[in-house]
Amino acid sequence: MNWDTIIFNDITVGQIAPWAAGALALYVTLKIYTIFFTKKKVNLQHTVYFVCSSCQWEGHISKFGTLCPKCAAPVRDEDRA
Ligand SMILES: [Zn+2]
Fold this sequence. Notes:
Blueprint: E1 6-8, E2 11-12, H1 13-44, E3 47-51, E4 58-62
Antiparallel strand pairs: 1-2, 3-4
The structure holds zinc ion.
């Protein structure tokens, strides 16, 4: 396969390559943004140690969690360690 390889009708690889490169660059850029965004999101999800006052479940929950993972009782601020 070379730059003059015809893909369909009279479109050659050389004509498609810049578009393919552009699409790839766009894809990579979006991928990087996605990774960056995901990382940022994870940073916001720091966990806190929590002891449920209803069922005594202990463990780490999201800092922004509002329900006990076991019994779904509302998380009170005084239950967070
Ligand atoms: Zn509970």
